[in-house]
Structure formats: structure tokens, C-alpha cells
Design a protein that fits this description.
Elements: H1 3-16, E1 34-40, E2 46-48, E3 53-62, E4 67-75, H2 86-95, E5 101-104, E6 109-118, E7 135-145, E8 150-163, E9 165-172, E10 181-192, E11 197-200, E12 205-212, E13 219-225, E14 231-237, E15 242-248, E16 257-258, E17 262-264
Parallel strand pairs: 2-8
Antiparallel strand pairs: 1-3, 3-6, 4-7, 5-6, 7-8, 9-10, 10-11, 10-14, 12-13, 12-15, 15-16, 15-17
Length: 267
């Protein structure tokens, strides 16, 4: 990384942490480097299970002199205070000297990308993800032009870091006589980054849905809340052949998930 690019990045980190840098005030653009189309993995939320995951953030940078360098930083916390928690300290120390890779598409425009490794396994790292890290994160972006001018935005965009979820379903008995009681059970769990296991997600509304045999669309029958262990159970009269599934809409910390349909033969 060139000397000016290093200075620009340290300016970004300092500005986020509440320290003064020349001409740097929050999200105020510093010069005329244009930044656009910043996305994480194509704009999707970042979902992490129990294994480490590498994500890529990319953006488009434009300046009349061309683009020299770019950097991206994930952070959260109140403005004017050091936003870097334990995990983010690792991101900063590991990533600030490993700047984004920039590929020029024209003399003035480059697409720059950078990777981050998200690690929930505390057994091998003292700076691993914890459950408290799930939620919305801010994204600081900076671009450095070939003439050494630069633009920095402390909160250019946001991304959502989520704990992976799983959902099961079982409908029975199979087969079942028409009009008899059908019982549908299941369990909603999500990754626990503190303990490296999947635990039940409690007190969450989950839709029970049915798809008649020979059709393609599911219809919501009722909503059931998960128990203290994440389990789901409900009963209803059997009426016709078809598939039953649970459908969870998700929360800010946990992604939506649908169970694979379970077919029940009604006789």
C-alpha cells in the first residue's frame, strides 16, 4: 500500500474512534473520489454458522486521475467513541495493512474488493465472534486516487450479521385417516457462537403451512410460537394429501428459514 493510502486508512480509523484528522468529520466527503455499488456478497445478509466464513465486500471507485487504493472497515458503536469491540480489533489489526484489491475497468474507474474472515470458534481464537455481535453493522469506505486525493465515509452503508438458523418438521401419523387428528411438530434452532452448538430459538412465531398434493403454492394455516427449547407442536384434523412445513420469517439477528415439506397420505 502506498504511503498516502496508509495515512488515509489510519485517518478513517481515527475518525471512527473519535480522534481528529485533517478535514475528516464523520461522513463528510473529503474530495471528489466517487464511491458507488458497495455490497457484501451480492447484497445479502452475512449469515455465519459454527464454522468460519470468508466474505467479500466490493465497490466501484471513480476519479479523473484513476484509483490508487481502497479500504473497507466493519464497525459499530456510538459516534465519537471507539466502535471496535474485541472481534473488530482483530479485523482492524489483520486487515488495515491488507488493502482492497482494485481492478481498473477504465482509466478513471476501478472495482475494488476486500475479504474478511469471520471466526466463531473461540477454542482457537481469543477474538472470535460472540452472540452479542449479531445485528446491524456500519461499513466505513474510503477511496484513494492516483493524485493522492481521497474520500472517506464512516457510515457509507450497513450490513447485517446473523446467526445461522435451522428448522425441522414432522407430520404424522402417516398414513392418517381422513378426519383423524394430525400432529405436526418441529424445532427452530440457531447457531450459538458462544458455545459452538445449535440451541432452540425461544418464543418465536412460526407459520404452519400446507401445500395440497399436485399444487405448487403453500398456504398458511396457523401461527405457533416456539417453546423454551425451540420446539413446535400443533394438531389439526387431516383432510387431504399434501405437504406440511414450518416457515420462520427471521429476525434482525437470525435469518429466515423454511423446513422442507413433509408429505402426509390421507386415506
Amino acid at each position: 500500500m502506498r504511503k498516502r493510502a496508509v495515512f488515509a486508512l489510519f485517518g478513517t480509523v481515527a475518525a471512527l474512534a473519535g480522534f481528529a484528522t485533517p478535514g475528516a468529520y464523520g461522513d463528510e466527503p473529503q474530495t471528489d473520489v466517487r464511491i458507488s455499488d458497495v455490497t457484501f456478497d451480492g447484497g445479502k445478509n452475512i449469515v455465519v454458522g459454527l464454522d468460519s466464513r470468508t466474505i467479500t465486500v466490493s465497490g466501484t471507485f471513480t476519479h479523473p486521475s484513476g484509483i490508487q487504493d481502497a479500504d473497507f472497515v466493519l464497525w459499530r458503536g456510538p459516534a465519537g467513541a471507539n466502535p471496535y469491540e474485541t472481534y473488530d480489533d482483530r479485523i482492524v489489526s489483520n486487515e488495515y495493512h491488507s488493502h482492497a484489491d482494485c481492478v481498473a475497468s477504465t482509466a478513471t474507474t476501478s472495482t475494488c474488493s476486500q475479504t474478511f474472515s469471520l471466526e466463531p470458534d473461540w477454542r482457537y481464537s481469543g477474538t472470535a465472534l460472540t452472540n452479542a455481535h449479531a445485528g446491524t453493522w456500519k461499513v466505513s469506505v474510503q477511496g484513494v486516487a492516483n493524485d493522492d486525493s481521497w474520500t472517506q465515509s464512516a457510515s457509507y452503508t450497513t450490513t447485517r450479521l446473523q446467526r445461522a438458523s435451522e428448522l425441522t418438521v414432522n407430520a404424522g401419523p402417516e398414513p392418517v385417516a381422513k378426519g383423524k387428528t394430525l400432529t405436526v411438530t418441529g424445532r427452530l434452532t440457531r447457531a450459538d457462537w458462544n458455545n459452538l452448538e445449535y440451541f432452540g430459538y425461544t418464543k418465536q412465531p412460526v407459520k404452519l403451512q400446507f401445500r395440497k398434493a399436485g399444487t405448487t403454492a403453500y398456504t398458511t394455516v396457523k401461527t405457533v410460537y416456539t417453546s423454551s427449547t425451540g420446539t413446535l407442536t400443533t394438531t389439526l384434523p387431516a383432510s387431504e394429501d399434501g405437504y406440511w412445513r414450518w416457515n420462520f420469517a427471521g429476525t434482525s439477528t437470525t435469518p429466515a428459514v423454511k423446513a422442507k415439506g413433509d408429505f402426509v397420505d390421507v386415506r
